[in-house]
């Protein structure tokens, strides 16, 4: 919070199918109003950018044996005669990504194989986590945009008591009721969902 009002806010919403509904609120919202401090009655326009993102999921790394290339060799370095005379070192490659790791810390090939698999999973997890983070950043950037008024998805005009959703070109009235989250808001979101569904169908058929 700043002297000029709330500059930025983050909230967490949970519930059944909440993201499938609220994701359509992502974008630039334009507010038109006459502030109480405006003596000449001049209309002020401001914008707020909203990003709606799903909660990142825990990533489980499952590696199929057919995707692994396992090679054994004699370990090098300190460790005595046993290390140098048995194929205890393990090199494991994940074929789809080309990522390779080695393990020769233990005298047992079985333990080195387990260590190599753990290393490989950790590396792939880091890659998948980074990809997930990048996808979230891209989604947020698309929704927030450049915060310009021509990117608006919805306008709230208080003097006219009007709300216009520019994506489906629909206008409703009674801002107070709409902002209370009642039936009017749910009906508009349902119309937007239907519009989006029809758009996707048309894209598939075209």
Automatic annotation (TrEMBL):
Residue span, Prokaryotic-type class I peptide chain release factors domain: 74-90
Alphabetized InterPro entries for the sequence: PCRF, Pep_chain_release_fac_I, Pep_chain_release_fac_I_sf, Prokaryotic/Mito_RF
This protein's record includes keyword Protein biosynthesis: yes
Coiled-coil annotated spans: none
Pfam families: PCRF (PF03462), RF-1 (PF00472)
GO terms for MF: translation release factor activity
Family matches, as PANTHER family: LD18447P (PTHR43804)
Keyword Protein biosynthesis part of the UniProt annotation: yes
A GO CC term assigned to this protein in UniProt: cytoplasm
Family, similarity comment: Belongs to the prokaryotic/mitochondrial release factor family.
Entry keyword set: Methylation, Protein biosynthesis
Protein name (record): Peptide chain release factor 1-like, mitochondrial
């Amino acid at each position: 919070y700043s002297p000029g009002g709330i500059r930025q806010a983050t909230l967490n919403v949970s519930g059944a199918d909440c993201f499938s509904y609220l994701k359509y609120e992502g974008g630039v919202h334009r507010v038109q109003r006459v502030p109480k401090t405006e003596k000449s009655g001049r209309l002020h326009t401001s914008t707020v950018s909203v990003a709606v993102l799903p909660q990142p999921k825990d990533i489980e790394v499952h590696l199929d044996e057919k995707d692994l290339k396992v090679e054994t060799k004699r370990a090098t370095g300190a460790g005595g005669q046993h290390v140098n005379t048995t194929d205890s070192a393990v090199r494991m490659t994940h074929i789809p990504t080309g990522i390779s790791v080695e393990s020769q810390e233990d005298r047992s090939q079985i333990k080195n194989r387990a260590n190599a698999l753990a290393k490989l999973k950790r590396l792939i997890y880091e890659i998948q986590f980074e990809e997930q983070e990048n996808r979230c950043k891209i989604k947020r950037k698309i929704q927030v945009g450049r915060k310009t008024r021509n990117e608006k998805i919805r306008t709230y005009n208080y003097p006219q008591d009007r709300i216009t959703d520019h994506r489906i070109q629909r206008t409703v009235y009674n801002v107070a009721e709409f902002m209370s989250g009642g039936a009017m808001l749910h009906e508009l979101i349902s119309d937007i969902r239907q519009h989006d569904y029809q758009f996707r169908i048309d894209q598939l058929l075209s």
